[in-house]
């Protein structure tokens, strides 16, 4: 499990319920042994990953999963140009995405079976509406 700065305390409470390992790593370059995990969860992560790194990262996640393992993730629903927003909640923030069609096709080409793939709208604190693609994908086995 990778954690953002400050999220470790929540994760530590969750760790009491199941076997978790906490890592602070770059998801786009993290290497783990094949078949290491029953599930990988990445929520609100891929919107901050360069577009060129999405598919290679999906392939790494596929390798990390045991047969029958699940990848649960949210993705940008639109095809967004990679860019840095100068002031996102007071700090510069990278945004990008490859869109629903490319995400779904890429996951399937890698070998995942899509069990759920839905676009959902969310209203942010400032009232803006944003959409995310929510996916549960399974490695066959």
Describe the structure in your own words:
The protein has 141 residues and is of the alpha+beta class. Helix content is 24%, strand content 35%. It has two domains: 1-28, no CATH class; 31-138, Vaccinia Virus protein VP39 (Rossmann fold, 3-Layer(aba) Sandwich), CATH 3.40.50.150. The strands form two sheets. A four-stranded mixed sheet has the order 1-2-6-5. A two-stranded antiparallel ribbon has the order 3-4. Helix 2 links the parallel strand 1 (37-42) and strand 2. Helix 2 packs parallel to helix 3. The two termini are 22 Å apart. The model is unreliable at 1-15 (pLDDT under 50).
Structural class: alpha+beta
Count of distinct strands: 6
Number of helices: 3
Shape: globular
Tally of discrete structural domains = 2
CATH homologous superfamily descriptor of the largest domain: Vaccinia Virus protein VP39
What percentage of residues falls in helices of 4 or more residues? 10-25%
* Widest sheet, order of strands: 1-2-6-5
Q: CATH architecture of the largest domain, please?
A: 3-Layer(aba) Sandwich
Strand content: 35-45%
CA(first)-CA(last) distance: 22 Å
Kindly provide the radius of gyration, computed on alpha-carbon positions and rounded to a whole number of angstroms.
Answer: 15 Å
Output the CATH class name of the largest domain: Alpha Beta
Q: Uncertain runs with pLDDT below 50, 5 residues or more?
A: 1-15
The main sheet comes to:
4 strands, mixed
């Amino acid at each position: 499990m990778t954690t953002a700065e400050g999220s470790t305390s929540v994760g530590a409470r969750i760790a009491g319920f199941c076997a978790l390992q906490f890592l602070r790593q770059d998801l786009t370059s993290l290497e783990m042994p094949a078949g290491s995990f029953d599930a990988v969860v990445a929520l609100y992560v891929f919107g901050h990953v360069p577009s060129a790194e999405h598919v290679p990262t999906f392939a790494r996640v596929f390798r990390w999963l045991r047969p029958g393992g699940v990848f649960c993730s949210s993705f940008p629903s639109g095809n967004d140009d990679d860019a840095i927003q100068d002031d996102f909640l007071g700090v510069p923030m990278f945004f990008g995405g490859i869109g629903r069609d490319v995400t779904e096709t890429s996951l399937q080409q890698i070998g995942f079976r899509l069990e759920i793939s839905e676009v959902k709208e969310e209203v942010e604190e400032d009232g803006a509406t944003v959409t995310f693609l929510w996916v549960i994908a399974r490695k066959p086995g």
